[in-house]
Design a protein that fits this description.
Length: 278
């Protein structure tokens, strides 16, 4: 695959921020985002929202970072270093969601810096990563600020109460999600077990764009959603149009799935390390 343009050594690369949770197992969350940023040649900035106690078997618990510290991280880097795109991951609570929306607006980032919102609700093991009141905060606070939202099918069901089982219901879900205010909605089809492929559907309120990739059969797909959103944000920072950024992100996460490795006793992570060659 073709990667993103790389900045020569000694010159400042584009900066992309992840606003997300830490995964102590290093497979998902901020750790996955920073790996993708680094291996795509962008400088990663971080606003930690929560620290999870996690390994390959699941999430044992998490600690939320105080709201002023979350807002402070965004303000500190935006006012000094500057950023060309951002993505969100685990945001844990409606209060954290509202804090991020406020900070995003207060720093003048709304409408100027592309924002990818991956509405993380639970881990692949079903452990909750979002308080139930956070769903409404996504709908009302963060989606209207988003350039793109990237829910998986479980998140689609929670957000708009649509069970995606085929192409027709996937289109219906894309319309319902777009109506919540993001510029673009991507309904990820990776969990559509009826399909041998992983069909994603993108919608901007007018046109639909379909992205297909052969499903990579692996038991190790921890962090796939984070990695996709981080790659899309990196491409947006480079000025890619949203459909081109999504196509790029899909190719990237497919390669990361092919390179996924076992870790611990449970689910291993997708791996951006393939980019280093062998
Ligand atoms: N832990 C953190 C901190 C995350 O941000 C995420 C996903 O965004 C997960 C766990 C869940 O990842 P997965 O669904 O791949 O297990």
């Amino acid at each position: 695959m073709t990667f993103l343009p790389v900045t020569p050594p000694g010159q400042t690369p584009l900066r992309v921020m992840t606003i997300a949770g830490s995964d102590s197992g290093g497979g998902a969350g901020i750790q996955a985002d920073l790996r993708t940023f680094a291996l795509l040649g962008v400088h990663g900035l971080v606003a930690v929202t929560a620290v999870t106690v996690q390994n390959s078997m699941g999430v044992k618990g998490f600690h939320e970072i105080p709201l002023d510290v979350i807002a402070g991280q965004i303000e500190a880097v935006a006012s000094d270093i500057g950023l060309q795109a951002a993505k969100t991951g685990m945001l844990a609570s409606s209060e954290i969601l509202a804090t991020i929306a406020d900070a995003w607006r207060n720093q003048g980032l709304a409408g100027t810096v592309p924002l990818v919102v991956d509405p993380v609700c639970a881990s692949m093991h079903g452990d909750p990563l979002l308080h139930p009141t956070g769903l409404d905060a996504y709908r009302t606070e963060l989606f209207p600020l988003a350039t793109l939202i990237t829910p998986n099918l479980d998140e689609v069901r929670l957000l708009v109460d649509i069970e995606v089982v085929d192409s027709h219901s996937q289109h219906e879900a894309a319309r319902a999600l777009h109506a919540l205010g993001p510029q673009w909605a991507l309904v990820k089809g990776g969990h559509l077990r009826s399909s041998p492929n992983s069909p994603d559907l993108l919608f901007d309120g007018t046109e639909f764009y379909a992205f297909d990739a052969t499903r990579v059969e692996t038991g190790h797909d921890h962090g796939a959603g984070d990695t996709l959103a981080a790659a899309i944000a990196s491409a947006l920072a480079h000025g890619y149009r949203v459909p081109d950024a999504v196509a790029f992100g899909k190719r990237w996460v497919t390669e990361c799935l092919r390179a996924a490795y076992p870790l611990g006793h449970g689910h291993g992570p997708v791996s951006a390390l393939f980019r280093l060659g062998s």
